[in-house]
Design brief:
The chain is of the alpha/beta class and about 300 residues long. Helix content is about 40%, strand content about 15%. Strands 1-9-8-7-6-2-3 form a seven-stranded mixed beta sheet, sandwiched between helices. The protein has a two-stranded antiparallel ribbon with strand order 4-5. The protein binds pyridoxal-5'-phosphate.
Length: about 300
């Protein structure tokens, strides 16, 4: 049967490789899947207090829709976290979503129209291009120097056209692990401001840092149209719970998008994490554990 042209045009390279890998597995060979960024599937678990908060919520009858922006306690806790990283916003600027994936879909669908172009740092986490295409846009890759962790500013400038609507960043990056420093972030914010572009920054790995210092884009945002995407899948080991959020900077240019994106969310009963994050810290052991073992495993291939 017919499917829409929009969906037919969406590709996801990882899925294609996984299909090929499954065929090899069917032939009896062992395949190690390094594509899924999910520590929970490697034996790690969300903090016990977070699990308990969810169990209590269910048992206490809190199984209804929350307010559409997300539970107030949660949006307040998230605003506090983002402010500590550099923004200066209130809980009204937070929208809780079903994972970063839904947040990304919502943001892209709000700003991209047929033929619009979105700049992405190459290589990027594939859904960025997929959602741009799904909403009729064209993903355009710009170069990043992996050695100096800096964006190629000339390349970005040369790729901006009248059709460009946004620059996306993923820092820390999947798949490269690259973390943009303050100077790099500032350069990108300046270019975006010069050309009246949205800046979308995915910081889902903001607390999974191995050897570099993390700087949030909030530090250099001032009143620029910066939209941060973040969530609980990675740092909080809650990938299956599907909780993420959009944090809108205090920018008059974001008023329309913020007011129009009020769609609603559910699982908000995890606010305990922000109050008792000492338990979360125990989970960081997985970073100490995972990093050397991944390096060893890769070396042995
Ligand atoms: C950069 C990046 N953003 C977003 C996601 C997905 O996040 P969520 O589970 O919140 O949808 C991933 C998952 O691998 C990711 O690597």
């Amino acid at each position: 049967m017919k499917i829409s042209k929009k969906v037919a045009g969406v590709e996801y390279a990882i899925r294609d490789i996984v299909s090929a890998a499954r065929e090899i597995e069917l032939q009896g060979k062992t395949v190690d899947y390094l594509n899924i960024g999910d520590p929970v599937q490697c034996g790690f678990q969300p903090p016990q207090n977070v699990k308990q908060a969810m169990i209590d919520a269910i048992n206490n009858g809190n199984n209804f829709y929350t307010r559409s922006e997300g539970l107030t306690e949660l949006t307040e806790a998230i605003a506090k976290k983002e402010n500590a990283k550099g923004l200066s916003i209130s809980s009204e600027n937070i929208l809780v979503t079903n994972g970063v994936s839904e947040g990304l879909d919502m943001v892209i669908s709000s700003i991209v129209e047929e033929g619009d172009e979105v700049l992405l740092p190459g290589p990027y986490y594939p859904p960025y291009a997929s959602y741009v295409r799904l909403h009729g846009g064209i993903p355009i890759e710009f170069s990043v120097d992996l050695n100096s962790s800096s964006p190629d500013v000339d390349d970005i400038k040369s790729k901006i056209t009248p059709k460009t609507v946004a620059i996306c960043l993923i820092s820390p990056n999947n798949p490269t692990g690259l973390v943009f420093n303050e100077n790099a972030l500032k350069q990108i914010v300046d270019i975006a401001n010069e050309h009246n572009l949205y800046i979308i920054c995915d910081e889902i790995y903001d607390q999974i840092i191995f050897d570099e210092k993390f700087t949030g884009i909030g530090k250099v945002a001032d009143d620029s149209p910066v939209i941060i995407l973040n969530g609980f899948s990675k740092v909080h080991l809650m990938s299956g719970w599907r909780i993420g959020y959009i944090a809108f900077n205090n920018s008059p240019q974001l008023d329309d998008i913020r007011e129009n994106l009020q769609v609603g969310n559910m699982l908000g009963w995890i606010t305990v994490w922000i109050h008792q994050d000492h338990e979360l810290k125990d989970n960081y052991e997985y970073i100490d554990y995972a990093f050397p073992s991944i390096v060893e495993a890769l070396k042995s291939i």
